[in-house]
Amino acid sequence: MPLLGYFASFWYAWQLVHVNYKQQVINSNLLNLDEFGISFLEVHRVFGEGSFNDLILNKYTPAQKKIHALNILSSNLTPANLHIIKQTLSSPEDEVRMFGYAIINKAEQKLAKSINVELELFKEANEKADEKQMALSAYELAFLYWEMLYSELSDEILSDEFMRQVHYYLEMAIDLLTKEFKKEKGWSSDHNLLFKLSRSHQLYGRYYMKQGQYEYAITELTIAQELNQENATFVLPYTAESYFYLGKHDMVKSILNKLSLLEINATIHPLVEQWKKSA
Predict the structure, then answer these.
(1) Residue 271 pLDDT greater than 80, yes or no
(2) What is the pTM of this model?
(3) Is domain 111-271 in CATH 1.25.40.10, yes or no?
């Protein structure tokens, strides 16, 4: 038996060395290995390391690079970006200061033009007693005036007046949109109107939050959620914030735990995780 074992081992080793099989390469079209022979493109950081805010305020940054940065910020005029752009209005560099002013002025004019158009539509609808068009124009005006406040494009002197306009047109929009639904004899008869009504109540909630009236804000936000459950992911974070300012932390945690979709929101995800892990 030992002799048979030695013979079998020798035969197996001989097979491994001398016996060849035809190589077959299967092309699966999933991965092109030839691409790995090409070097990856080098990525250069145009603005270096650090924040845009530091870049704009740094007196050693070339004016051309500041203007390039402002041009990028102007493509997405969020409140944070507008805050950075506004800081260039006091820049000692004329070209940077004028470019920043041009961006803000253009944004203000665009909003003002939209407001004027809607005011004309509202006036015409009022003269014709067209309540549906009045409702739609009031809805648009409320959001346009709110955008003036939210984007900080309005002067501080005019902020109170814009808040009054938001309140005035929101109340009118909600009242008229509700009447339109009653005419249609069904809350689900016109999804577009239902969506606008839900968003109106949501904005009303944010209006009360800005005023520090969080109980009223929760009421309006709850109505907005009930009218359009699909919009809950956008409504409930404001509800949670209102409960937080009221000191009702259990409600905050309960709301955030129910909203699984918030986990894919990169901005709010860290906050959600903190509340989940809190006692």
Answers:
(1) no
(2) 0.69
(3) yes
